[in-house]
Amino acid sequence: MNEQTKAIRVAWCSSLDLPQPTNTRLNFEWITVDISSLFEQDFDIIVLDFRVVASIEKVRDLYNTVGKPTVLLVETIEQESAVLTWLEAEDETCQYDAINQQICLRLQRSFWHNQQKHLFNLDKLTGIANFRKFNDYAINLLTSNEDIEQISLIYLDIDRFKFINDRYGHITGDQILQEIGQILQKYSLGAGIVARTGGDKFAICMRGSIEQGKAFAEFLRAQIETHEFKLNAMSSVRLTASFGVISMLGHTSIEQLWQEINQCIYAAKQKGRNQVVTSEEFDAIADASGQDKLITDFEHRIRVTAERMISEMVLKASRLANKYRVEAELDGLTEVFNRRYLDRLLAREIEKAHKYQQQLTILLLDLDYFGAINRTYGFPTGDQALKTAAQVFQTHIRAGDWVTRYGGEEFCIVMSNTDLNTGCQIAERIRLALSAEVITAYNGQQFHLTTSIGVVELIAEDKLVSFLQRASDKLREAKKNGRNRICF
Predict the structure, then answer these.
(1) CB 327 within 8 A of CB 369
(2) What is the 3-state secondary structure (H, E, C) of the chain?
(3) Between the CA atoms of 52, 57, 63 and 64, what dihedral angle is there, to the nearest 10 degrees?
(4) What is the CA radius of gyration of the chain?
(5) Which residues, listed in sequence order, are joined to residue 353 by a DSSP beta bridge?
(6) CB 174 within 8 A of CB 111
(7) Could you tell me the pLDDT band of residue 116, with boundaries at 50, 70 and 90?
(8) Which of these, 194, 76, 218, 205, lies nearest to 153 by C-alpha position?
(9) Pairing of strands 438-440, 410-416
(10) What per-residue confidence (pLDDT) applies to 4?
(11) Residues whose CB falls within 8 Å of the CB of residue 198, separated by 6 or more in sequence, listed in order
(12) Residue 145: what are its φ and ψ, rounded to 5°?
């Protein structure tokens, strides 16, 4: 049995008795109210009877004031025809003689259509109004014949937001946009509308002059600038936004409105971002340059776009260079550092250890009987054995240590701030872990790997070559003494 867990509260504004519906799919709770007390309770949907209102004009005023899904009860075709000229598409009429048969269906249609309209007008990511809702709101203001008080449009564009998405990923970017939406909602409670108009752009309409709009935009700019946007439990990032402020009134079209607000946004970005520019200030910038406003706007757009392209090119070049650097320093098979990296970084570690009188220990490792593994099982299995050994080495070293492939089946592990005794303990741990590992050949046969390890600690006379030579001598000694052992 599918029970409705929450009843839909219906305000019955009629002198008629409550209906006795014959069919309903929703759980309606009928509450008889008069017009004077209609706003004292929170209703989900309204039934408004023509008979309890003095005139059709007052019915329309009341309907517009209620702002809830509504079904209007009408008595004549003339009344219904008059209502349909201004009734919103999602609301309904119902004639008196069809109440019991149709009222629940009318209520159901109005309720569901309003729910869909609400969801259709919301931005799915932030939960605030979307571009469609904002555009409709702006068009209604521009085409209204009524006297409207001053209304300012505040438009903001998050600075360098593409960098956030590129560096931290779109999931993090979406979380930041959600936070920005929450900030704007929190401080814009009295605004006519707060909307995300697309990407990293938001719009707010508020009562007041352009000067008041600028003051509020400056306040919002400071809130965003000082807010810490959390990336994770340990780190956060700070952002800025560029703002444009114009008066909503005096525009002949929505296209003119968008043109003017975008002029302000590009001017704010051209001034260095994290700025607020009003339409009056943009006009002053154009006048000061002695140019037409369209030319000034074009120059701003070119400069901002060029700067953005340069930043993206520098970022891509940096990433590409870093990618090639990493590839040049990694061994392609085992994905540990290669000999080039060892020679460069070990020389630096030796210099630092001598300068600051720090300890430095290295392990030189050679996989035992590796030539026989290649001959017996083939080179693909030999490659798998090398990768397994590298994984074991990386798993059993400490966070500050690093593994390199010295050449062939030889590896070197560098451990800064480490004495010989600690190095031997780590070497023994690695030796035991590798000997316990089972390698499966491509023919299904299984075998074990072992390694011989030479361990040496840096002495005052050591340079790069002598340090590695002493480690190599200890490795040969371990091999000579029977393999699968350490020598120091």
Answers:
(1) no
(2) CCCCCCCEEEEEECCCCCCCCCCCCCCEEEEECCHHHCCCCCCCEEEEEHHHCCCHHHHHHHHHHHCCCEEEEECCHHHHHHHHCCCCCCCEEEEHHHHHHHHHHHHHHHHHHHHHHHHHCECCCCCCECHHHHHHHHHHHHHCCCCCCCEEEEEEEECCHHHHHHHHCHHHHHHHHHHHHHHHHHHCCCCCEEEEEECCEEEEEEECCHHHHHHHHHHHHHHHHHCCEECCCCCEECCCEEEEEEECCCCCCHHHHHHHHHHHHHHHHHCCCCCEEEHHHHHHHHHHHCCCHHHHHHHHHHHHHHHHHHHHHHHHHHHHHHHHHHHHHECCCCCCECHHHHHHHHHHHHHHHHHHCCCEEEEEEEECCHHHHHHHHCHHHHHHHHHHHHHHHHHCCCCCCEEEEEECCEEEEEEECCCHHHHHHHHHHHHHHHHCCEEECCCCCEEECCEEEEEEECCCCCCHHHHHHHHHHHHHHHHHCCCCCEEC
(3) -150
(4) 37
(5) none
(6) no
(7) confident
(8) 205
(9) unpaired
(10) 43
(11) 131
(12) -90, -5
Cβ 126 vs Cβ 177: under 8 Å: yes
Amino acid type, 71: V
Structure-derived torsion over alpha carbons of residues 50, 53, 54, 56, reported in degrees to the nearest 10: -50
- Taking only the tens place, the pLDDT of each residue in 427-444 is 999 999 999 989 888 888
> Which residues face 451 on adjacent strands?
367
The answer to whether residues 454 and 487 touch, using CB atoms and an 8 Å cutoff, is yes
> Cβ neighbours of residue 248 under 8 Å, at least 6 residues apart?
138, 141, 142, 151, 152, 153, 205, 257
Beta bridge partners of 454: 364, 487
Residue with tokens 């002493």: 470
The candidate with the shortest Cα–Cα distance to 107, out of 4, 34, 19, 6, is 19
pTM beyond 0.70, yes or no: no
CA 452/CA 218 separation, integer angstroms? 68
Half-sphere CA count of 11, side-chain side, radius 13 A? 24
What is the token pair recorded at 231? 């990336």
Pick the closest to residue 10 from 33, 40, 37 (CA basis).
33
Q: What percent of the chain has pLDDT over 70?
A: 94
Token pair listed for 187: 């401080």
Average pLDDT over residues 193-215: 92
Phi-psi region of 300 (alpha: psi -120 to 50; beta: other; left: phi over 0): alpha
106: tokens are 């009318």
Length of the chain measured in residues:
488
**Distance in angstroms (rounded) separating the CA atoms of residues 30 and 7:** 9
Give the C-alpha separation, 35 to 87, whole Å.
Answer: 19
For residue 463, give both structure tokens.
């340079």
